[in-house]
């Protein structure tokens, strides 16, 4: 069979293997380069794009902006070339793929949506052979095998996939809504915990023998290391906006500055140019990126003992809380707890709170105060928190017995929601596997019935490879200049 493309030895073996596999009547094997040739996108710097235009601009990761001109027609496939190599996107309208992507408008032998679904199954990203930025070679793309169905059957396959995926999408939307509902529940739970709403019934039934103020004074005595302790001035008149949106604390609660509860510090980043600070290091070193999880146990990197001695880094013990003062996306304001002794960079505030119950309470409060804390950041393009903002934070302190009750109720509720989240994740994974099963069945000819009356795919390829007829020109005919 003439494919119009030279195959590498490796690809020839793959192609021969595919040809030996049975296909339904009327189907045939061909290559992507034969029926779905790709072209290079064209650079379009953001500064010259017209964001008021209606033409979508695509990069390897998908839509990245708008413009007022197109270089690819409607119903085109966009394939990631660099970065998100092998990713596949579909544009119904004319578009502009930039130079990190390829695009294809297909050929007469293939339905463009049939090609789209096949590439979703085929996962071109596996062809990446680069050692730095992930990339997809056009040569490797061109020789990849594709099972070609009769054109009429291609349309039936696409219609069936679209219908089945639409049903799955409804289920996925319900899963997403349930996940959002869990997040809303979690925020409401934490707010109720730190305002006293969660334990209103407990306070009515159990009169605490000690107040939050008593607990705070005891902590201050322990921190001061004196039997009499330092005097503590009540801060019950503190501005509530500095703490949380309540007009009045529950009976027995009080306010405290975070700097009265914790030793607060930060870290640093050793010079990257000094290899002796990094190579062969065995000191765990965390950045603000680690605050995305409740506990930090896997270091971002390791530094050396020399880095500790010659930089602003210091070791914090396991149990230290790290608060992200700045970072990308949702990072700023997140909190985590070290499970190992480690250093951190200057994007983290390190909170050492020896009393375990108070430490857990502070961690819970930061979770409830996340959105408000982010708003306190200062700066221009990327607002940041700083140590002074962290130290000045004011939070409510319940009696010790009530803190224990709150933490118990929150842990029980979070455990239940975590179980539910696990169920949602399992169902989402099932949906993903079901979609892959549907695509696999489709391209093995098992999704829709074959029709013997359909024109076979071999005829499509024969027409595609046939030379175009030359236009016959009459005697004396001239071409008019335009």
Automatic annotation (TrEMBL):
The cross-references to Pfam families, in alphabetical order and at most eight, read: Methylase_S (PF01420)
Q: Where is the composition biased (Low complexity)?
A: 458-469
Q: Which InterPro entries match?
A: Restrct_endonuc_typeI_TRD (IPR000055), Restrct_endonuc_typeI_TRD_sf (IPR044946), Type-I_RE_S_subunit (IPR051212)
**Residue ranges crossing the lipid bilayer per the database entry:** none
What GO biological process terms are annotated to this protein in UniProt? DNA restriction-modification system
Keywords tagged on the record: DNA-binding, Restriction system
Provide a Gene Ontology MF annotation, just one: DNA binding
Task: Report the residue ranges that make up the Type I restriction modification DNA specificity domain in this protein.
Answer: 24-171, 250-415
Gene3D superfamilies of this UniProt entry?
A: DNA methylase specificity domains (3.90.220.20)
Residue segments, region Disordered: 458-482
Q: Which species is listed as the source?
A: Rhodopseudomonas faecalis
**Descriptive protein name:** Type I restriction enzyme S subunit
- This protein's record includes keyword Ligase: no
- Can you tell me which family this protein belongs to? Belongs to the type-I restriction system S methylase family.
């Amino acid at each position: 069979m003439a494919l119009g493309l030279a195959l590498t030895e490796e690809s020839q073996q793959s192609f021969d293997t595919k040809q030996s596999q049975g296909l339904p009547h009327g189907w045939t094997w061909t290559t992507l380069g034969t029926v779905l040739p790709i072209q290079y996108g064209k650079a379009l710097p953001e500064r010259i794009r017209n964001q008021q235009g209606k033409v979508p601009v695509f990069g390897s990761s998908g839509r990245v902006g708008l413009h007022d001109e197109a270089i690819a027609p409607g119903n085109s496939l966009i394939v990631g070339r660099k970065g998100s190599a092998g990713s596949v996107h579909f544009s119904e309208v004319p578009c502009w793929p930039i130079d990190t992507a390829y695009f294809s408008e297909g050929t007469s032998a293939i339905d463009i949506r049939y090609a789209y679904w096949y590439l979703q199954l085929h996962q071109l990203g596996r062809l990446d052979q680069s050692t730095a930025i992930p990339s997809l070679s056009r040569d490797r793309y061109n020789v990849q095998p594709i099972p070609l169905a009769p054109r009429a059957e291609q349309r039936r396959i696409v219609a069936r996939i679209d219908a089945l995926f639409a049903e799955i999408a409804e289920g996925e939307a319900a899963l997403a809504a349930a996940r959002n509902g869990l997040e809303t529940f979690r925020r409401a739970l934490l707010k109720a915990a730190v305002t006293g709403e969660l334990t209103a019934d407990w306070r009515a039934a159990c009169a605490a023998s000690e107040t939050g103020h008593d607990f705070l004074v005891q902590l201050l005595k322990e921190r001061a290391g004196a039997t009499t302790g330092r005097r503590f001035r009540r801060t019950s008149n503190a501005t509530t906006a500095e703490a949380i949106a309540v007009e009045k604390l529950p009976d027995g609660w009080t306010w405290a500055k975070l700097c009265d509860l914790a030793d607060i510090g930060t870290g640093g980043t050793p010079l990257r140019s000094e290899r002796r600070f990094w190579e062969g290091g065995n000191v765990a070193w965390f950045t603000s990126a680690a605050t995305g999880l409740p506990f930090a146990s896997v270091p971002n990197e390791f530094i050396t003992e020399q880095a500790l001695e010659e930089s602003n880094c210091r070791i914090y013990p396991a149990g230290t809380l790290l608060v992200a003062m700045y970072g990308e996306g949702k990072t700023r304001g997140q909190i985590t707890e070290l499970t190992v002794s480690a250093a951190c960079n200057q994007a983290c505030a390190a909170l050492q709170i020896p009393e375990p119950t108070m430490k857990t309470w502070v961690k819970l409060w930061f979770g409830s105060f996340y959105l408000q804390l982010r708003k306190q950041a200062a700066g221009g393009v990327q607002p940041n928190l700083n140590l002074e903002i962290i130290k000045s934070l004011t939070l409510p302190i319940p009696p010790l017995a009530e803190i224990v009750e709150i933490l118990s109720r929150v842990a029980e509720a979070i455990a239940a929601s975590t179980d539910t989240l696990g169920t949602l994740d399992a169902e989402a994974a099932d949906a993903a596997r079901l979609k892959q099963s549907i695509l696999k069945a489709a391209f093995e000819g098992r999704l829709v019935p074959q029709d013997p009356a359909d024109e076979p795919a071999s005829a499509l390829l024969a027409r595609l490879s046939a030379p175009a007829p030359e236009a016959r020109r009459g005697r004396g005919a001239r071409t008019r200049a335009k």
